[in-house]
Amino acid sequence: MASEFNAFEVLTMAERIEINAQNFYQQASKMVDNPDISELFSNLAVWEKEHESLFSDMKSGLSEDEKASTAIDPYDELMLYLAEMADEHVFVKKDLDPASVIDDRSTPEDVINLAIEFEKESILFFLTLKRLISKRSGSEEIQKVIDEEVDHMAYLASKKRILRSS
Predict the structure, then answer these.
(1) Helix or strand run (H / E) with residue 21
(2) Residue 94 in 3-state DSSP?
(3) Which among 159, 153, 148, 158 has a CA at the least distance from the CA of 52?
(4) In this structure, are residues 126 and 145 in contact, taking their beta carbons and an 8 Å threshold?
(5) pTM
(6) For the chain, which residues make up each domain, given as ranges?
(7) Which in 29, 44, 81, 140 has the greatest CB count within 10 A?
(8) Rounded distance, CA 161 to CA 56, Å?
(9) 52: helix, coil or strand?
(10) How far is CA 61 from CA 8, 11, 47, 55, in A?
(11) 49: pLDDT confidence band, cut at 50, 70 and 90?
């Protein structure tokens, strides 16, 4: 397996993680009775969809160097490996069924704290991958993914402050 990734490979994982997050939040929004919590999850699902589109657009704008494989992979096993890595991310861990982490007693602040934890895990995941990407292979593009996740976390933190002050 390659010891270095390129921007195309990481953006492929990022897209998949965003799809998994959308599915999680959509499922969660349907299972709670509290309309505020349901709306918050629906909004998070929409945001994840926007991230998926952004990352897809970023992929189409990559240079040849940023798309160039760093591994010999005649059977296209790298893409299977990347899909598996993305699918093992926080949103699809076997123990992370929405019903296992939220219920009707969950407050909007609880939901925001959960979403903040997801964002933290995403940031750590991409920071780790960025270390495996050279500048030539597009590490700057991965910083944009990290920046998006940081912005998302900042938004959630501001929502939490608003809730606490009301």
Answers:
(1) helix 7-31
(2) coil
(3) 148
(4) yes
(5) 0.73
(6) 7-165
(7) 44
(8) 32
(9) helix
(10) 10, 11, 21, 10
(11) very high
Helix (H) or strand (E) holding 25: helix 7-31
Nearest-angstrom CA–CA distance, 148 and 99: 27
CB atoms within 10 A of CB 75: 7
Question: For the domain with range 7-165, which CATH number is right: 3.40.50.300, 1.10.8.420, 1.20.1260.10, 3.40.50.720?
Answer: 1.20.1260.10
Q: Which of 23, 24, 26 is nearest to 43 (CA)?
A: 26
Q: What confidence tens digit (pLDDT) does each residue in 52-111 have?
A: 998 899 889 888 888 776 666 666 676 666 666 666 665 555 455 676 677 667 777 887
Structure-token match 């994840």, residue found = 48
